[in-house]
Amino acid sequence: MIVLGSTSEVAQAFVEKALQEGEKFEKIYLFTSNKETAERFARHIDVKFVQQSEIIELDLTREIDYTTFDNINSNVLFCATGYLGEGTEEGLYDNKNTEKIIHINYSKLVPVMNYFAQKFESRRSGTIIGLSSVAGDRGRQSNFIYGSAKAAFTAYLSGLRNYLFDKKVHVLTIKPGFMATKMTEGLPLNPKLTATPKQAATCIYKAYKKQKNVAYVLPIWAVIMMIIRNIPEFIFKKLKL
Amino acid sequence: MKPNFIQKVTNWGNFPVVEKEMKSEDSFRKIKEFVLNHNEVIARGNGRCYGDASLGEHIFSTKKLNKFISFDRLNGIIECESGVLLSEVLEISVPQGYFLYVTPGTKFVSVGGAIASDVHGKNHHAEGCFSEYVIEFKLMNESGDIMTCSREENSDKFWATIGGMGLTGIILTAKFKLKNIESAYIRQESIKAENLDEIFRLFDESESWTYTVAWIDCLQKGKDIGRSILMRGEHAFQHELPDHLKKNPLRLKGKFEPTVPFYFPNFVLNSLTVKIFNLLYYKKQAKKEVKNFIDYETFFYPLDAVHEWNRIYGKSGFIQYQMVIPKETGKEGMKKILETIAHSGNGSFLAVLKLFGKNNPQAYNSFPVEGYTLALDFKVNSKLKKLVDKLDEIVQEFGGRIYLTKDSMSRSSLTNYLKNIQNPKFVSLQHKRIINNN
Ligand SMILES: Cc1cc2nc3c(=O)[nH]c(=O)nc-3n(C[C@H](O)[C@H](O)[C@H](O)COP(=O)(O)OP(=O)(O)OC[C@H]3O[C@@H](n4cnc5c(N)ncnc54)[C@H](O)[C@@H]3O)c2cc1C
């Protein structure tokens, strides 16, 4: 398995879930910009599941040397890379913030995904799982830079799914709503709308096994987002969301 | 939305409830920042202590220190971060033929919490406390430095931290030994005792057993005082097991684990219901003596089978009162305690009696000393403080002490026994309460 954003709690919970379910991987490739945390996880899965892994540094804000990925082969690509950045209030007119959000969530990420997608395509097998966000379902005033990058990522995954369909590669888009992770720690989230990384992993694993196309982590979010998407623009623009 | 880390926090007894800052980090660098930027920090594991021991002004939760580091499968030595739960250790060790040397009555405690309380199990008389099997741990001190502590290295900090209730710093990782087992099952004998004399006699007779414990029906009066069931057990060897368990001796089948869905209303638990429960519990076993094989979960963690059972005590919560009375006068003391409880009518759902063996004098902050220990649950109500005071009086008279990890209202003369922990950086609400003497 190839894991992009391997220090994300959801990514780690997903890896553990898969191993618990008895999935076997020759090696797990842990891509990360935070080596220390990835190393903790690598030791952890070795102790728990006798699972070999390799850590590969990837910093999406820098130049990427693709030749170092040459020997990496796998049947599953899990992408949990993401960057929330500052919201509109603090960060809209801060170009550094805007660029970083766009790079990590979309522009620099997609070529990396494509690199592996090509390998999957040539082998005519595999699954690509991408974590997008409900924030990409409609731009809202509070965090639309992040939302727009995720919207682009969602569109990318949907196109990729379509393109790879007859090449026997499956693409799964996951849209988590609120999640209790580092990203949201200390925020007053409604517990009914918030999934733990473990819950999210269970749901993603199910969707993976069932070859779903798009899955919301908590079903309630599918309903919420359907409503939000369908509010007429002339009303929506007046709302404080 | 700016993060706000102030939240309602409470431990297993749901008493007291406080609103304090609680934060969790997984990088040592960030933990150091937290320690340096705050006064009055206290570590919190899984909140399975009953009272205010892991509550403080600025709580550092080890929830995110949840990774394993190494497992020497040949020698049964495991190393992990301090927030790893004993249940998680068992999950990987049991199938490999290893068990914890010492485990408390719930597996949902963290390794850090097990060291900080130096927990004991049903085998204290035979195998001592958790610390006996700890090889080393890493401790973050008040300057944010990480010290490796063992019997050889920084041994003063090692011993002060064991049973030191988090007052010496934050345990980050720990390395400890596991014991070999051939099966995940326990060969158990349970024997009914009519009264206190009989149960004490049974304990003495069972000294060669690794695990012993008794459940007492503490509402009995007069000649029936101390009516109880003694349970003793050994890890079963593979060849002893009944045939259907022999094939896969280290694997348990999945079990259904119910959860208590909400706090029970106040009227559910009163002296009548407790009486009925205890009667049923005692009568459930019809024969004087039962021998069987049971899985380790049922033997060690009967209460874990019902998640969040603490909610049956209602929103006002409950306390656990656990004392030890030295051996010489222990029986007499126990009798007085049980009489006092029976007369108070403030019945305890669950009363557990154990015999402690000799303590390790080096682990001077550990709670156990050779003698009798009794643990009782009481619902928090307006009469409780008075009862606790009466019980404290008896414990004092007999030269006993109270287990800090269960304490939330006992008098400080029984709880102020820790040494070498004075450190203005690491302060718990419990410690403040004890030194302020109220
Ligand atoms: C059902 C039940 C049965 C129990 N049975 C037993 C028993 O048989 N024997 C027994 O001995 N105990 C028993 N206990 C008590 C329990 O074992 C202890 O309270 C244990 O310390 C709880 O661990 P925790 O991880 O939940 O720690 P917490 O409750 O969060 O903290 C307990 C103490 O440890 C300190 N601490 C926690 N983590 C760290 C760390 N990383 N560094 C420094 N200090 C730390 C805290 O400051 C606090 O003082 C039982 C508890 C329950 C709920």
Helix content of chain B: 10-25%
Within the largest sheet of chain A, what's the order of strands? Answer: 3-2-1-4-5-6-9
Query: So how many helices of chain B?
Result: 12
Shape of chain B: globular
Radius of gyration of chain A: 18 Å
> Unreliable runs of chain B, pLDDT <50, ≥5 residues?
none
Number of strands of chain B: 18
Helix content of chain A: 40-55%
| Spatial strand sequence of the major β-sheet of chain B | 14-11-13-12-16-17-15-18
Class by SSE composition of chain B: alpha+beta
Strand content of chain A: 5-15%
Largest sheet of chain A: 7 strands, parallel
Distance between the termini of chain A: 37 Å
Could you describe the largest sheet of chain B, including whether it forms a barrel?
Answer: 8 strands, antiparallel
Q: How many extended strands of chain A? A: 9
Task: Describe what this molecule looks like in 3D.
The complex is a heterodimer of chains A (241) and B (438). Chain A has 241 residues and is α/β, with parallel strands linked by helices. Chain A contains nine helices and nine strands. With 438 residues, chain B is α+β, with helices and mostly antiparallel strands. Helices cover 24% and strands 26% of the residues of chain B. In chain B, the strands form three sheets. An eight-stranded antiparallel sheet of chain B has the order 14-11-13-12-16-17-15-18. In chain B, helix 10 packs antiparallel against helix 11. The longest helix of chain B has 18 residues, at 327-344. Chains A and B meet through helix 2 of A and strand 5 and strand 6 of B. Flavin-adenine dinucleotide (FAD) is lined by residues 11-12, 42-49, 53-54, 62, 82, 104-106, 109-110, 112-114, 116-117, 119-121, 165-166, 170-171, 303, 405, 428 of chain B.
